[in-house]
Amino acid sequence: MSGYIKRQIIHSVSGSREQTYDNVTVEEPLEIRIDYENNTYDVSVIMRTPVDDFALAAGFLFTEGIIKPENIIDIKYPTDAGISEKNNIVIVSVNSFEKQLVGNRNFYVNSSCGVCGKTNINDIFLKAEHLISQRNKIHYNQLLKLPGIMKNNQKIFKNTGGVHAAAILDYSGNILSMGEDVGRHNAVDKAIGKMVLKGINRSPEAVLQVSGRAGFEIVQKAAMYGIPVVSSVSAPSSLAVELADEFNMTLVSFVRGNSFNIYTHSERISMK
After folding, report:
1. What phi and psi values does residue 38 have, to the nearest 5 degrees?
2. Widest CA span of the chain, in angstroms?
3. How confident is the model over 24-60, as pLDDT tens digits?
4. Residues 228, 268: contact at Cβ < 8 Å?
5. Is 113 an active-site residue?
């Protein structure tokens, strides 16, 4: 699926009326289930753009601390669901998972939601495997290019102008993975999930570039995957800054044109 559909609209300029067409980003619910030892566990329903569903499910379960990459046995759509459901349900078969974390989120999670789905504020402080200590540097000129590199590869955005994007890039600006979605957290989960499904479980020398602001959960997801640098075109939140500092991560925001703000651990940005 392309992630967008063509709809008939009325276009108006100064009161005129013109019947034409516009591409609209698709938003549909995705139900994520875990299959463990022939038992099925309902995890969450996420409003998402129906592209890269398997990556979204893998990334979401991993960055929420519910599974580890090595726990995944198989990911599939159900074969016994109705036509309207079969592509909106993903079943992740695992050999182990953190059962106590399933049910700690409200069952419905909308596409703009982050920590709003958590029932206990303490649950958001998930433990990454270790603090990020990689100290190799990315040149500031290369950092400034990353939003443009990502935007040039945003296929759904080019057709709709209505999705968020997240890309994992190396320090040379090569895209390692990328996701687009109506939900900014979903885009991050898709990018990370693609790496996990490739068998790459950490990216210790990479940048997570996001198209919007850098909230707490985006930094948390980067920490869970071991990404040392998070770059956003918009503002960070105070909690995102605190978490980045705690996990020895570099957080750079307002990356636009020829300027940016470094909020934590500036030593990874080469200014020479």
Report:
1. 65, 15
2. 62
3. 999 999 999 999 999 999 999 999 999 999 999 999 9
4. yes
5. yes
